[in-house]
# Entry
Amino acid sequence: MIGRLILTYPDASRRLGSLLVLTVIALGLYQMGISAKWLGQVLPISDPWLSENPAGGRVVSSVLIALIAAVNWKLLRLLPRAYQIGGVWIELFVLLMLFFYSFDLSLPFIAKKIGFLITRGVTTTLYISAISIAIATIVALLGAIAKLSRNGVVYGLATFYTSLFRALPELLTLMIIYFGLPLVLQAALANLGITTPVEINPFVAGMIAIGIVFSSYCSEVLLSAFRAIPHGQYEGGYAIGLTPWQTMRLIVLPQLIRIALPGLGNLWMVLLKDTALVSAVGLPDILRQTFVAAKVTKHAFTFTGIACLLFLALAILSSFVINWLEAYTKRAEARR
# Structure
């Protein structure tokens, strides 16, 4: 019955569906306890009525926000796709800024203290991320090649390595390397008659731990990329007289990078966030500097919000760079 009515009156059904969606959104906003204070700020004349009718103010506020969202949706649909994407990003970013602004943050105080997080926190985060992804890529490339080997011993070692470090939590791996590896090295040196205490720098421990963990994930990405390259590419290289190394460097690796780049880009975004784990061993990354600043100044939410914005900025910049690299590799492949 309902299906027949929808087919018979499609325009009326569409309008009724839109009205139902608006009603659900308004009810959801009302149940969330949406405030009507913004109405008093936009229309000061409504302040007395809002004070006398708080429930009615919430109803009006919920309905108006639902209507604004509907009008915004209609206007965005009139734009070309590229402008729609840009408009959504701008609107959501403005809403995020308004969310932080609603907590009455002191902008002069933030401007004064943000350099403290950027000069040390962001620099440390980017530094350890870049070195870790380089280590992970090199180890993952060797692991992927080992998984393609017909040698059972080599294949077994590679699969055990990736299975182990994909199973262990990143923080646990970091703790094992930071606290456990010095004990192993110290015991090994003691067998050689050397009793010097062994300590690992927090930066080195974080770099090794993150590099090892992400190399296990990266190896699967590279393995899939290797398998996506037709075997005829190798045979063609051998047929024109190239050595296996030359075939790998000149024919396989360019295709491998293009195929694996989206997966590697995703791993970079995850790695960028997981560098926050190194704060557990005292490394002054963004998160560690945030905790220190919050403890000293007693402005915990302020510095937490700054840390969120810094990570968001790094993620957006990384997305632009990754997209540019993907477009560049596609253009390079088209010219070949």
Notes: The chain has 14 helices and no strands. The chain has a mean pLDDT of 83. The chain has two domains: 2-89, 108-335. The domain at 108-335 is CATH 1.10.3720.10 (MetI-like fold).
